[in-house]
TrEMBL record:
It comes from Chlamydomonas euryale. It holds the Pfam family RabGAP-TBC. This is Rab-GAP TBC domain-containing protein. One of its GO terms (molecular function) is GTPase activator activity. SMART domains: TBC. Residues 26-63, 206-231 are annotated as: Disordered.
């Protein structure tokens, strides 16, 4: 706060001195004793010339000011130029003081200059009322949910609405869910291959889950096996070739799923339930890879589907829990459709690619706090790919506990203008929150702080992000 006060005082002093100097030129002809006395009196008296109005007040207009010169070397253009420069200098200093006061976090020596953030007391009732309408107003819903959704079961429906999985018309929900869940089962039936199915044409994977072993044995009729379906065949059309490729993808998915939310027994425990959860995540991610051959599965996608799956497994409608896998799959498809370019190496340098997005984050930081940006990126040469790549591609899902991720995604999904820019403002707010640590630190300290973000009340970060203004793409 002392630093911010210094900025303000310096700006006011610059303004006072420059205005007094301009008044000296006007009254005393640029260097006369009368002008000097008026200027000195103006500085001592807080900006008032002896016997006259406050300096800077032109009284009865520029004509009266000109006549006060008494035939000296008065120049109206000169005074206008000096006043303009004085106002620009003072404005710059005052703006710096404002930014210092607004952006300094608790580490800056004072409490964050941000208002309380979070759902108001009547938020849940208002959200439920909006959801009860015959046609839901998504604009109004976003205005309510951006501050946080205080109930997990309500969040389930809200996210499905905001992601476009459900339409604003509740009367369509039952048919939409039935159709999508059936379609997911069809995908499982058609795309999940195993060795027995490849070689004999037995019941599909989905059927194998439901049919008894004796029924499978009695109904299986081997197909003719061609040379292209031999396990050693190199033909691209070979089912065995497809099976081996799928096996590689599934192994990669399995490795990642085992590391999903490692502190939560829901995903990593030894229980049968945890094992089932992992299997369902693996299946959903594998189907995404099969349906998107141009992108397939990319490491980290497991962290994006996990919050969705966990949420849908804990919804109020217990009957829907068995469909959490299908619902999470479709919502993941909607979510990844907005961010898939981050995962595509061929688009890294495109305007929608990850490198351009990281540059956009640095543009925002430079606008909000030029000194911090300069220290991190220019002085210490900390490339944003070392920390922001993970922040952006995984929507901060690895930086905070799951309950905080829910709050962050409430905020991001509720943004109407640009979810990407909203995410970047949250990232910028994180850096502003640890400003003091970053400014004191070297390359190693900055890397450690940003790669392992310290514990924080997530409402403080979101409040700061909500206050950050929009910055045009050109950074001006």
């Amino acid at each position: 706060m002392d630093a911010a006060r210094g900025f303000f005082e310096r700006g006011l002093t610059q303004l006072r001195e420059s205005l007094a100097e301009a008044a000296s030129e006007a009254v005393g002809g640029g260097g006369s004793a009368g002008g000097s006395e008026a200027a000195a009196e103006a500085q001592r008296g807080g900006g008032h010339a002896a016997g006259g109005p406050p300096v800077g007040s032109f009284g009865s207009g520029t004509g009266g000011l000109a006549s006060a010169g008494g035939g000296g070397s008065f120049s109206l253009d000169r005074i206008t130029e000096r006043l303009g420069a004085a106002l620009r200098d003072a404005s710059s200093a005052l703006d710096s003081g404002y930014q210092a006061t607004r952006l300094m976090g608790s580490e800056g020596g004072a409490a964050p200059a941000v208002p309380p953030f979070g759902p108001p007391p009547d938020s849940l009732d208002r959200i439920k009322k909006e959801l009860g309408a015959s046609c839901i107003n998504l604009h109004n819903l976003r205005r309510l949910t951006c501050y946080g959704i205080p109930d997990c079961s309500v969040r389930t429906v809200v996210w499905q609405l905001l992601l476009g999985y459900l339409s604003p018309s509740p009367e369509d929900w039952a048919s939409t869910l039935a159709k999508r869940r059936t379609q997911y089962r069809v995908f499982c039936d058609e795309l999940m291959l195993d060795k027995k199915r490849v070689s004999t044409g037995e019941a599909s994977w989905m059927q194998q889950r439901t049919l008894k072993a004796d029924e499978q044995d009695s109904s299986a009729e081997p197909k003719d096996v061609t040379s292209s379906d031999h396990p050693l065949s190199l033909e691209l059309s070979s089912q065995w070739n497809t099976f081996f490729q799928d096996s590689e993808v599934m192994m990669q998915i399995e490795r990642d799923v085992l590391r999903t939310q490692p502190t939560m027994a829901f995903f990593t425990g030894d229980s049968d339930a945890a094992a089932t959860h992992r299997e369902e995540l693996k299946r959903a991610l594998f189907l995404y890879a099969k349906l998107n051959p141009g992108l397939r599965y990319i490491q980290g996608m497991n962290e994006l589907i996990a919050p969705l799956y966990y949420l849908f497994k804990h919804g109020a409608d217990v009957a829907s829990h068995q469909h959490a896998e299908a619902d999470a799959f479709w919502c993941f498809m909607e979510l990844i459709s907005e961010t898939r370019d981050y995962f595509c190496a061929q688009l890294d340098n495109a305007s929608t690619g990850i490198r351009a997005t990281m540059r956009r984050l640095m543009t925002l930081l430079r606008h909000y706090d030029a000194a911090l940006w300069r220290h991190v990126e220019v002085t210490c040469k900390v490339d944003p790919q070392f920390y922001a790549f993970r922040w952006i591609t995984l929507l901060l899902s690895q930086e905070f506990p799951l309950q905080d991720i829910f709050r962050i995604w409430d905020f991001i999904l509720s943004d109407e203008a640009s979810r990407t820019d909203c995410l970047l403002r949250v990232c910028a707010a994180m850096m502003l929150h640890v400003r003091a640590t970053l400014m004191r630190g070297d390359f190693t300290v900055i890397m450690k702080t940003l790669q392992r973000f310290p514990p924080v009340d997530i409402n403080v970060i979101l409040a700061r992000a909500a206050q950050l203004p929009h910055v045009p793409d050109d950074g001006r």
